[in-house]
Amino acid sequence: MPASNGVRQYLGRTFHSERTRSGWLAVVIGLLSAPIVVAHFVQVETFFLTSGEFRTFHLTSCLFILFLSCAETTDPRSRLKMAGYILLALVSLVPLAYILSEYTSIVRTRPFGPNANDTMIGVLLITLTIGIVWREWGKIIPIISLIGIAYAYWGPYVPGLFFHAGISIERIVAYLSIPFFRGVLGGLTEVSATITFMFLVFAGLMKATGGLDLVMRLAFAVGRRSRAGPAQAAVVSSGFMGMISGSIMANVASTGAFTIPLMKRVGFRGSFAGAVEAVASACGQFSPPKMGTAAFLIVGLTGIAYTEVMAAAIFPALIVYLYLAFAVHLRAVKVGIKSGDELGDAVPFSDVPIQRALLLQGHMLVALGFLVYFLVRQMPPGLAAAYACVILIALEFIKQMVLHIRNPVQGFLEAASAILNGLSEGMRSGAHVAIIIAIISILVEMLVVTGFAQKLSQLLLLLSLDNLWLLLAISALTCLLFGLGLPTSAAYILVAILAAPAIANFGVPLLAAHLFVFYIAIMSALTPPVATGAMVASSIAKSDFIETSFTAVRLALPGFILPFVFVLRPEMLMLDGSFFDTLMVSTLCLVGLVYINIGLEGFLYGRLGPLIRVFCVVGGALLLINSVALNLAAGVLLAGATIFSRSRAAVAVPVAQRKGS
Residue 423 has what pLDDT? Predict the structure, then answer.
């Protein structure tokens, strides 16, 4: 085969996806993504651009790639529409050229007020951002941001508490772009450019080089002997991939397409299978070291050290996943699902030695290990992710050259194909997150400069009547309301601005306040009526959406309860007390949550009667309260319920045996 034909073949295979309608545009996007990603790598290492210049480059390059992606997915017969998207892609580079050429003048001669050209370029940049978000994420988020702009302009006409003097259009544009370098070019975009983007590129490389396949194999190897093997595999794989991807819906769609049908195949109801996948994907956002990129947003908003954020998230994440693993095991026993070894061909990878999978894809675990090591050594997160990407790329080349030692050209092409695909995937994912962070920054900026966020925090304090429990309940409802339908990053940013200050003003540690709103905001992906995670899962499971959503809420119970524990028992986050205190609080919470689930499930060693179910729920709830007396009372209730269930099961077995004989 001629070399040119081989290159074309590999390029076509590398960049093609299910959504691709124009192959040549897919190749163009893939080839252009690589230098953009490399420029990000070089920036976090050398800082060759100033902060304002790099934010502009980051946002405009993301707009450029996304508009080209819109053209790529357009029907080739709609030539005018495709040409329009390509034109918009080129127009998105105009703000970059203008700001880079005028940067010195912008920051030195007009830092407090834009000229006419600045305003025009700012309007163009804001309009392009709103337009692409409307196209890629739907109309809800852009409309909310436009409402924020309208509120900033028409503030004098708003009655009551939220009245303000109003801001001129020129000033609004300055706040949202240049010359202030806030809004779409503000600090959150800096976090997106230097940290979030780098980790999404790492996730793209992991996926392209076989990371998802390896995780699934390991997950099924771990859960094979369990009664809930496929469900446990969903918990492990979706949790891991959710931690990396930063998108609940994307993770449900990717791993769920594999795990949900398998769970149904071995005997789980569709609604339960979909709920397990949705909850595991959502809870991956809680898991260190990356926490779905939110850890770095917390750092950016609070100034708290990354290592402290990561350490605080360890025990809550363990509780969430141990609870979920127990919940799916209990359901498997209840409905009589066989163990993994009895399932035979229903479980995939049974004929593939795990040792071979580790040999072929284990280099990804090496790269991930280096990433964690760099982060623990307090290397800047973006730089740590860039180094991990370089290590992964180098190891992939070595692997392919060894596998194709007799045909090094093919080995090189295979490695290049996987790496270019990973860089392209990371570029697209990073661009999607970048624009959503940018447009949420519009709303955040308007809420801050108009004083709305501060006034809302004061209103929450007034409504709480100086009662912390009431404040937490109101804040939780606010987080669920504002988080509906939003991606993880956007949901956290918005509720952190609105609700976290009110909780912190009550004397709650700042990190506990932010983790409170973060957890609750993530849970909005599972709660009706929107429940984006459950919606995707139910469509894959072909189950009722409402039933799937409510099942997910029960399986995600720790996500709703633990935030209150963070505030009332900061020892769990290692913000107070000794390590023994952290371990004790975490253990009591885990046991309490497990028994609440037992009561709701109505099953332990056998089916439970109504009274025993009440004992389990009440006893579990009492374990969550910071009171030795109530904890002891809970122990008595739970011990009695356990002994009673065990004794009934022991009696039932001989009776069944006598009947059978």
Answer: 93
Q: Which two tokens stand for residue 270?
A: 């569709």
In terms of domains, do 89 and 195 share one?
no
Q: Is residue 358 part of a domain?
A: yes
Residue whose C-alpha is closest to residue 473's, from 448, 503, 518: 503
The three-class DSSP label of residue 98 is helix
Distance CA 148, CA 151 (A): 5
> What is the rounded distance in angstroms from the CA atom of residue 208 to the CA atom of residue 112?
46
At 639 the pLDDT is 92
Instruction: Give 244's pLDDT tier (boundaries 50, 70, 90).
Output: low
Q: Is the pLDDT of residue 39 over 60?
A: yes
DSSP string, 517-542: HHHHHHHTTTSTTT-HHHHHHHHHHT
- Can you give the pLDDT at residue 308? 86
Cα–Cα distances (Å) from 540 to 76, 194, 212, 373, in that order, read: 29, 35, 18, 37
Which residue has 């109801």 as its token pair?
A: 269
Q: Across the strands, what pairs with 607?
A: 603
- Identify whether residues 157 and 199 lie together within a single domain: no
Reported for 399-408, long-range contacts at CB under 8 A and 24+ positions apart, including other chains, are 399/360, 399/363
Give the model confidence (pLDDT) of 171-189 as tens digits.
Answer: 999 999 999 999 999 888 8
CA–centroid distance for 1 within its chain: 44
3-state secondary structure 165-228: CCCCHHHHHHHHCCCCCCHHHCHHHHHHHHHHHHHHHHHHHHHHCCHHHHHHHHHHHHHCCCCC
180: which DSSP letter?
T
149 and 271, same domain (yes or no): no
627: containing domain: 591-661
Q: Are residues 90 and 213 in the same domain?
A: no
Per-residue b or e along 228-245, where b marks 16 or more CB atoms closer than 10 Å to that residue's CB: bbbbbbbbbbbbbbbbbb
- Residues with Cβ < 8 Å from 24, sequence gap 6 or more? none
- First vs last C-alpha separation in the chain: 72
C-alpha closest to that of 9 among 27, 29, 22: 27
* 370 shares its domain with 411: yes
Spatial neighbors of 322 by CB under 8 A, at least 6 apart, are 590
Per residue in 571-626, pLDDT (tens digit) is 899 888 888 989 999 999 999 999 999 999 998 888 888 999 999 999 999 999 88
Mean pLDDT of the chain: 83
Give dist(CA 505, CA 498) in Å, integer: 12
Nearest to residue 623, comparing CAs of 284, 310, 319? 319
Say whether both 230 and 345 belong to one domain.
Answer: yes
Dist. CA 477–CA 574, nearest whole Å:
26
Structural domain count of the chain: 3
pLDDT band at 340, cuts 50/70/90? Answer: low
d(CA 496, CA 304): 14
Question: What residues pair up with 457 in beta bridges, in sequence order?
Answer: none
Instruction: Give the side-chain half-sphere CA count within 13 A for 548.
Output: 30
What are the beta bridge partners of residue 603? 607
* Total-model pTM: 0.77
> Residue 359 is encoded by which pair of tokens?
């040999």
Q: Is the Cβ–Cβ distance between 279 and 324 less than 8 Å?
A: yes
CB 405 within 8 A of CB 411: yes
- Residue 164: how many other CB atoms lie within 10 Å: 16
